[in-house]
Amino acid sequence: MMQAKKHTKTHSTYAFESNTNSVAASQMRNALNKLADSVKDEDTRSKFEGELDSFFSLFRRYLVEKASGSTLEWDKIKSPNPEEVVDFSVIEQQPENVSNLSKLAVLKLNGGLGTSMGCVGPKSVIEVRDGNTFLDLSVRQIEYLNRQYDSDVPLLLMNSFNTDADTAHLIKKYSANRIRIRSFNQSKFPRVYKDSMLPVPSSYNDELDSWYPPGHGDLFESLHASGELDALIAQGREILFVSNGDNLGATVDLKILNHMIETGAEYIMELTDKTRADVKGGTLISYDGQVRLLEVAQVPKEHVDEFKNIRKFKNFNTNNLWINLKAVKKLVESSSLEMEIIPNQKTINRGGHEINVLQLETACGAAIRHFQGAHGVVVPRSRFLPVKTCSDLLLVKSDLFCLEHGALKLDPSRFGPNPLIKLGSHFKKVSGFHARIPHIPKIVELDHLTITGNVFLGKGVTLKGTVIIVCSEGQRIDIPNGSVLENVVITGNLQILEH
């Protein structure tokens, strides 16, 4: 019904919406000017005004898109052709050209906090394997690459205002390493009150929850505004390999680098096959003769099940991206990068009351449609190893992987995909995880693990096949040292006293 109404809008309806948008935009512009006036330092104000201008462009575009109700037409969505999505097996047969490393820089998205896993500070400082943090592993990978090929690939970190100070302190410890590390901040945008559509902060120095980092789609403008883009181009760097800081599988791949240079593509997105755990992941489509990223939020409700069907949409975006730097400069300076806006609803506390706010975000994967020769490469699952939860943490800490030069390598005896691990709310925070699983079990032969409730694993536990452990509310289950659990369901209460 909603779509039918869109086609029957009268001229006066559009005029009303246009006028409403104009008023909202005008009020926002005035409020942003007042925000800018709150900054007295000239250099700070100049940078801040640039960010506010970027935010205003995003806000105005949001108003227009919201009013027009512009959505993708489902019938126009087609599967990508073989030129638009290439299988890694085709690329793998090509020879490596080590000299191409002189054209490469690596960037890790480092703006996230570890709060979802119960940690304070940047997520990149969570210990994930053998005493190494995410950041340690990223540094070790690039350092090994440079030593192995006598190259000088730099590592860049895009921080947010939440992670910048801590990261600046942390990277000092790598000063003696064979690696050049540069960091810069992504933008700091004002949150918007959902009811009035006005900015939450009234001053530059307002509390932190008045602001937000606007998603990793902000990468392009922030890279340019920081001066790092021009610096890289001046060094002869042509390609930037971008990945999430928590994806332990995102290592430099010479085959993909060579493929990008040989094809002249300005943008390559790594895709990998969907599993039951990835049904909501964004996928590449062909739309009006153009490669685009389709996210579940863009899918009409009646087609969501179809989108989640792994037979129709077989692979998804890993957010491992290879991007041509000169193309980025050209697109940013011509203001041509318009990515789909993701409205993210949040709440903040003011005077003891929860208030609804909105933050407008973009994703860098959505920029693919603006680059020439852009296409996807379907890579092995080993290149997608994110750690979003403690369930993921159990996987990467286990004997399923060994650590080689900062990269996790799968045990060759493992057969089939990685096990599906689901840990309940008692394991949501890292502290609860370590308290209940102080010794990581052996899981090379595990297919599925579910643990809910107050469960503790002993030392030297082996899990095989499908293991389900469900502890009743108010009870406790202790799995004794040396236990081998294979295709079992344990429920209720199990207390082992001989510790």
TrEMBL record:
Keywords carried by this UniProt record: Nucleotidyltransferase, Transferase
Transferase is among the record's keywords: yes
GO terms (BP aspect): (1->6)-beta-D-glucan biosynthetic process; glycogen biosynthetic process; trehalose biosynthetic process; UDP-alpha-D-glucose metabolic process
Record Pfam families: UDPGP
Residues the record lists as binding UTP: K123, Q186, G215, D246, K388
Keyword Nucleotidyltransferase applies: yes
Catalytic activity annotation: alpha-D-glucose 1-phosphate + UTP + H(+) = UDP-alpha-D-glucose + diphosphate
GO MF entry, a single one: UTP:glucose-1-phosphate uridylyltransferase activity
InterPro entries listed in its UniProt record: Nucleotide-diphossugar_trans, UDPGP_fam, UDPGP_trans
EC number: 2.7.7.9
Task performed by this protein: Plays a central role as a glucosyl donor in cellular metabolic pathways.
Family statement drawn from the similarity comment of this UniProt entry: Belongs to the UDPGP type 1 family.
PANTHER family named among the record's database cross-references: PTHR43511
Official protein name in the record: UTP--glucose-1-phosphate uridylyltransferase
Native source organism of the sequence: Lachancea thermotolerans (strain ATCC 56472 / CBS 6340 / NRRL Y-8284)
